[in-house]
Each structure stands twice: as structure tokens, then as C-alpha cells.
């Protein structure tokens, strides 16, 4: 008898969660190995100790997630993962959509949390062309302006920073004729933007409400769950405005803990749905219990 093949990957990078009539599917775009040196206002040694105590990877591994929303006949994405921007282990969006039977042409909107490469890299191909031929790009006006501004490119001080700006500009160009900039309000029935500035000027969450149920897809409020839940004062070197990003994280965590508002995030551990509770001067993440039915 031949031995059944040993698995080398999870059977699915998708996880469904219904918010009233809105079907949300989290898609894992991959995980990458980061560094505690990404952190600001927080000692690397202390971060490593937190990871060791919580049986987390050292060096830290960061999930990258994005989301499919199905609302009536509309299929929308919230962010699009890395594409080819962060190496061959990332950029699983096309494969994940294939597994759901969703073609690129089916995507009607892309709601961006911000224009960093791990969020919009999947929107353009290697030639800088739009991957989603029918999708309207919806983004906060402040992010659109910031990344499109020549001064942002001129002010980039490293190859990595320049790469960030160039990919954002490529994305803006690819979707130029079908981009909607917003600052507030509803963009689809039950889906509204929540400005969360700091990580980038227009960094935003997307709040879903349907049938009395709610979810805040909060983008990059947290990059390292093992550190930034207990210590929301820990910043990220990629934050455009570090002090504002920390203030926004504290404000959003206070809000979702107080309101018992369910959250999901681009760098929360997959499948990334859960609640935030207050704990020992900081916060803790309580994952949703897996359920076979949706
Ligand atoms: Zn990110």
C-alpha cells in the first residue's frame, strides 16, 4: 500500500465568517519572518521575552491577511495582499480566490486600508497592470494624496522606502480611471470607512454592520500581536507618524474593548477574527472559536 502523501500546506487559506447578510472570507496571503527591530518605543529583548513566554516564533512571524466580502451580488476585496512584492512565499491571493471560485473579473471593488506593499501588491502584476479589470479602488483621500505626492518619493531615504512609494504609485496609476477617494461614510450597504491615521496618513479600517452584527476590519492597528496587545505603546518602524499611530492604536483598542466590537486584522494570527479585552494594563486578543458551519 502506498503511503498517503505527507501534507506540506494547510488545506485552505480561507476562513468564512458571516456578519448578518455579509459573508466575509479571510484569506491568508502568507507569513513572513520579521524582526523585533521593527519595533519602536519598545526594547527588542522585552519583545523576545514576551514571545518566548507565549510560545511564539523567534524571530517573529507575521501573518498577512486580506478579505473577500460578499454583499448581495457584489464581490469586494479588503486589501489584496503582497502580490510579488514580498517574495515567493507570499502573494497567495489568486490561488485563494481560485479555491473560492472567484475570478479576477468578479471583483467589483477593492477597499484599501492603506497603500503599503503587503496590502496593495496583489492589485498589480509584474508589468504594473491592474489584476482586477472591473474593480473600483476605494481609498482614504489622505493616503491617495500622500503616496501620489512627488515630495513623498523625494523624501524616501532608503531603497525600501522608495520601493514602498513606487508600488503605491504604480497601483494608483493602474486604477487611475476607477478610483474613489473617501474620508468618511458608507461605500457599500453596511460597510463604512473608519479613519485610523498614523501608520499612514489615510490608514483606515472598514466597519461592517448587518443584521445587528458588527465587525471592524482594522488594517494595521496591530503588526505583532504578541507584543502590541499587551503593550499598545509599542510602535512600528514603518509608521509614517509614529506618535499618531500609537495614539490611534490606543484609541481603537479602547473603543473595541469597551463596545465589545469584533475585530479582524491584516496581521492578526490567521484566521484573525476575535475580540479585544483589557488585561494587566494592556489588552489581550480572544480569538473566535472555529465553527464548521457559516
Ligand atoms: Zn501591513
Strand order of the main beta sheet, please? 1-2-4-5-6-7-8
Helical run tally: 8
How can the largest sheet be summarized? 7 strands, mixed
Quaternary organisation: single chain
CATH topology: Metallo-beta-lactamase, Chain A
- Count of the domains: 1
Percent of residues in helices comes to: 10-25%
What is the element string, with H for helices and E for strands?
A: EEEHEEHEHEHHHEEEEEHEHEEE
Envelope shape: globular
Write down the CATH class. Alpha Beta
Bound molecules: zinc ion
CATH architecture: 4-Layer Sandwich
Structural class: alpha+beta
Note the gap between the termini: 37 Å
Number of strands: 16
Radius of gyration: 18 Å
Q: Please state roughly what percent of the residues sit in beta strands, choosing from under 5%, 5-15%, 15-25%, 25-35%, 35-45% or over 45%.
A: 25-35%
Structural summary, described in words:
- With 294 residues, the chain is of the alpha+beta class.
- The protein has one domain: Ribonuclease Z/Hydroxyacylglutathione hydrolase-like (Metallo-beta-lactamase, Chain A, 4-Layer Sandwich), CATH 3.60.15.10.
- The chain is 24% helix and 29% strand.
- It is built from 8 helices and 16 strands.
- The strands form 3 sheets. Strands 1-2-4-5-6-7-8 form a 7-stranded mixed beta sheet. Strands 9-10-11-12-14-15-16 form a 7-stranded mixed beta sheet. Strands 3-13 form a two-stranded antiparallel ribbon.
- It is globular and about 50 Å long.
- It starts with 13 loop residues before the first strand and ends in a 7-residue tail after the last strand.
- Zinc ion (ZN) binds next to helix 3.
